[in-house]
Specification:
heterodimer; A: mainly alpha; ABC transporter involved in vitamin B12 uptake, BtuC; two-stranded antiparallel sheet; 3% strand; B: 505 residues; alpha/beta; Rossmann fold; 7-stranded mixed sheet; 32% helix
Chain lengths: 360, 505
């Protein structure tokens, strides 16, 4: 009989090794899946993991890694703070949309006036938009004890409707020949989140993501608020005893994650995406949940996980077009990654022992 | 003793890193009350789990009435006439007594038949109990009755009782003993696990003493003094804590007219609590578990806020201050539940030192944590309170109960409190660690701090307190000087028999 024994304390070695083991297991299981679909598994795995980084067209794909990875990391960092404390913001997608709308809205309000302070104002507005959208579930939770999971999730659909209404109405490009969608911010210098170094994919969102990683790392390891976040997640009663104010913590965690998601949306709409359109959001807010867990809710882990996730996205796209892999297979592949990570995660706190069963 | 009911021969059970039972042998006679005596961690629980079929021995054998007995699971043990009352009850608060009992049966009879059987058994053995009452409304003593009746319905040959009196008032203990006497007279054997020597001396015919998993001696309790048994149990003579004569100073903490609603459906409301404790004084608060101990501690630690002047430190009202502000003023607390309340299980001892030490030890500056100082503080606690651990980087849950308790108490004591509130400071702690903890409380009081010790261990309270009060259903009795209080008076302060009576047969 195989059975699990609780370790006296979490294993440091396993907590570092599980992501690697999970990636390895995903490659094997994913390879089997691709083989079952009649594709060459080695070629498929190579296309997903190798092609974007070192393949023939990597000069094009590498910048894409940053462009796709930055919003994931930025959102996931915010989410991880709440998740660590057991506060579940599932609605980052909505906060991302609201950040984009607020940011773009401020920018478009100035059009065509050019000034250096327009972009900073848009950044502030974007962060505020995400923050205020997250404050709705936060306020309802602390005031009426509602479930933040449900409220934040449902607000995503509200935000999507709001986005549709904005791109068809208030923010619609007056010179757009009736097509839905706003003016292209890439053509408005003061509001454009341009590449900082041409051809690298490096834009202000990437900088913000890196700052967020450092900020979260310092907060969690060196600051009282971060300590309170960890304590609340580990032992809520002990947190109460230590003097943690749960209300303040809920407002802080939801507010911060909303603000970061809003910033991600704002950097996206002013940069890579360029305009507010009905289907502007592509699910970063949900994928970031996976990234947060894949990175084990640790800032540095999230940075790596965001990179890995971006890699499987881009690699998956290449595999779709080069090898004609169905997109569902790619999604299964990404799902496997999370599944194996959570499964192997068990080994951090438990060890497997082979022996006879017994009730102790 | 006439014939042997159950005979244990060389029972051994090892867990990784510890031998819980090392070739333990003894016999239990028919109609005998046999005491199993030992400190926490001596291996009593493992031994009875083997008899009850919950744990399989590595080696050794058991004979029941002369034939080999090796239960693979509790159901088998029950079929052979062995029943067990656990220390922690497994009852559902929201169901009534009969429903709870039916849940534990293989083929429960109709509810009406079951109820009448429960009535029969309860009257025969002097354990009155209404089968239709909701368990959530019962006192601890009455809940224990449910467990006992659940066992008696199986008509057991051997009844195992694990620390049955830890939740009872002295009067309730009296009633329980009468029931056990009656069972003995009918020829039922009882294996009675306890570390309370006086009750073993009154009740038991024979005692087996375990120490570190080994059978270290047997005795006839009525012919052996309590101190002899204690020495066998601990392995060395225990020095009782010294209490120097203390001078009481000014009023330190003053609670007046404190009422707090119950935090949950099955919690306890505090009702009009008054208490005062002076500098240098130790106030012992007794009472059966679940009578408001946790709630009182939360009110004192600042986890639950009250009207400002219901709780006063000297003349300062502190009822509206949270835990951090109270710590700054010198009001510290150590809750009962070590893992999850007093300490975060998966965090290191350094991080757990930060948990309450941040304010008074200056471990935080402008919101930033000083981990080096926190480590130093944790090391100091480990050193001065003899906490056995490789170092402060280890997780709290890796420590044994006694060591973690020493850490928790030490963490508060070393912060030089003005007022220290502890709840069950030595619960589940071995005798030498318990003695060290009590000594540290006495020393703290001698240094001029006021100490409130909430405990269910009356011996402990009598040993260290200057004055004594008891919690009963959220009401606190008026404190009285501890010296000269009789067991009976204490029992009455604890609420007597909680409405429990011996049935008249």
């Amino acid at each position: 009989m195989i059975r699990l024994e609780k370790r006296p304390q979490p294993s440091k070695a396993w907590s570092l090794a599980t992501p690697l083991v999970a990636v390895l297991a995903t490659m094997i299981a994913g390879g089997l899946l691709f083989a079952a679909l009649g594709k060459d598994p080695v070629e498929a795995i190579r296309t997903i993991f190798w092609e974007p980084l070192f393949g023939e067209f990597s000069f094009y794909y590498r910048p894409q890694l940053l462009v796709k990875g930055a919003p994931l990391v930025l959102i996931a960092i915010g989410l991880s703070l709440g998740f660590k404390a057991g506060i579940w913001n599932i609605g980052a997608e909505g906060q991302y949309i609201m950040g984009a709308l607020f940011g773009a809205g401020v920018g478009l309000a100035f059009y065509p006036f050019e000034a250096w302070y327009i972009f900073p104002l848009m950044v502030i507005a974007g962060g505020f938009g995400g923050w205020i959208w997250a404050m709705i579930p936060a306020f309802l939770k602390v005031r009426f004890g509602t479930n933040e999971i449900l409220v934040s999730l449902m607000l995503v659909y509200v935000a999507e409707q709001f986005l549709a209404s904005m791109s068809l109405g208030l923010l619609k490009n007056p010179e757009g020949h009736g097509f839905p969608g706003s003016r292209n911010l890439q053509q408005y210098d003061s509001a454009h989140n341009a590449e900082l170094i041409a051809g690298t994919g490096m834009h202000w969102g990437v900088v913000a993501a890196l700052i967020a990683v450092i900020f979260a790392y310092v907060l969690l390891n060196r600051h009282m608020t971060g300590y309170h976040i960890r304590l609340t997640g580990e032992a809520p009663r002990a947190a109460r005893f230590a003097g943690v104010n749960p209300t303040r913590l809920i407002l802080f965690c939801l507010g911060t994650s909303g603000m970061l998601a809003g910033l991600a949306g704002m950097f996206e709409v002013t940069g890579p995406s360029g305009q507010v359109s009905i289907d502007f959001n592509v699910g970063y807010g949900f994928t970031a949940i996976i990234v947060a867990f894949l990175g084990r809710l640790h800032p540095v882990g999230i940075l790596l996980a965001g990179g890995l996730m971006a890699l499987t996205y881009i690699g998956g796209d290449i595999a779709q077009s080069n090898l004609q892999l169905p997109s569902a297979a790619i999604q299964v592949f990404q799902g496997m990654l999370l599944f194996f990570l959570l499964a192997f995660d068990l080994l951090t706190n438990f060890r497997i022992s082979l022996g006879k069963t017994e009730v102790a | 003793m006439t014939e042997v009911l159950l005979s244990l021969k060389g029972l051994t059970k090892a867990y990784p890193g510890v031998v819980a039972n090392d070739s333990v042998s003894f016999d239990i006679g028919t109609g005998e009350v046999h005491a199993l005596l030992g400190e926490n961690g001596a291996g009593k629980s493992t031994l009875v789990k083997m008899i009850y079929g919950l744990v399989k021995p590595d080696s050794g054998e058991m004979m029941l009435r002369g034939s080999p007995f090796a239960p693979g699971e509790p159901r088998q043990a029950r079929a052979d006439g062995i029943a067990m009352v656990f220390q922690h009850f497994s009852l559902f608060d929201a169901l009534n007594v009969a429903e709870n009992i039916a849940l534990g049966m293989e083929n429960p009879p109709k509810m009406r038949d079951l109820a009448s059987r429960i009535r029969d058994v309860s009257e025969t053995y002097g354990l009155p109990l209404d089968p239709y009452r909701t368990v959530g409304d019962l006192s601890a003593g009455e809940r224990q009755r449910v467990e006992i009746i659940r066992c008696l319905l199986q008509d057991p040959k051997l009844l195992i009782m694990d620390e049955p009196t830890s939740v009872l008032t002295p009067q309730e203990v009296e009633i329980l003993f009468q029931t056990l006497e009656k069972l003995r007279a009918e020829g039922t054997s009882i294996l009675y696990i306890s570390h309370k020597l006086e009750e073993i001396r009154t009740l038991c015919d024979h005692a087996t003493i375990l120490r570190l998993g080994k059978n270290v001696g047997e005795c006839i309790p009525s012919e052996t003094s309590a101190s002899e048994m204690a020495e066998l149990m601990v392995g060395s003579a225990l020095t009782p804590p010294e209490r120097g004569s203390r001078v009481f100073g000014d009023m330190a903490l003053d609670i007046s007219g404190l009422s707090v609603p119950a935090p949950s459906a099955f919690g306890t409301a505090l009702r009009n609590v008054h208490l005062t404790v002076r500098r240098g004084e130790i106030l012992g608060i007794g009472g059966v578990a679940g009578n408001g101990q946790d709630e009182l501690l939360s009110v004192l630690s600042g986890e639950v806020l009250t009207q400002a002047d219901a709780v006063k430190l000297g003349a300062t009202p502190i009822g509206r201050l949270g835990p951090v502000a109270r710590r700054a003023l010198g009001v510290l607390a150590a809750p009962e539940e070590r893992l999850g309340h007093a300490a975060a299980p998966d965090m290191s001892l350094t991080e757990n030192a930060m948990l309450t030490g941040a304010t008074r030890e200056g471990l935080v500056k402008n919101g930033f944590l000083k981990w080096a100082e926190a480590t130093e503080f944790a090391k100091r606690v480990i050193k001065e309170f003899d906490v056995r651990t490789p170092g402060p980087e280890n997780a709290a849950r890796s420590l044994s109960g006694g060591n973690l308790q020493k850490f928790v108490i030490g963490r508060e004591v070393l912060q030089r409190p003005e007022v220290l509130v502890v709840n069950q400071p030595t619960w589940g702690v071995d005798a030498s660690a318990a003695a060290a903890i009590r000594q540290s409380l006495l020393d703290l009081a001698a240094g001029g701090a006021a100490v409130i010790c909430i405990s269910q261990d009356l011996d402990e309270l009598m040993e260290i307190s200057d004055s004594f009060a008891a919690l009963n259903e959220g009401r606190l009795s008026a404190p009285r000087p501890a010296a000269g209080l009789s067991v009976e008076e204490i029992g009455l302060m604890m609420g007597g028999a909680h409405g429990m009576e011996v049935a008249h047969v």
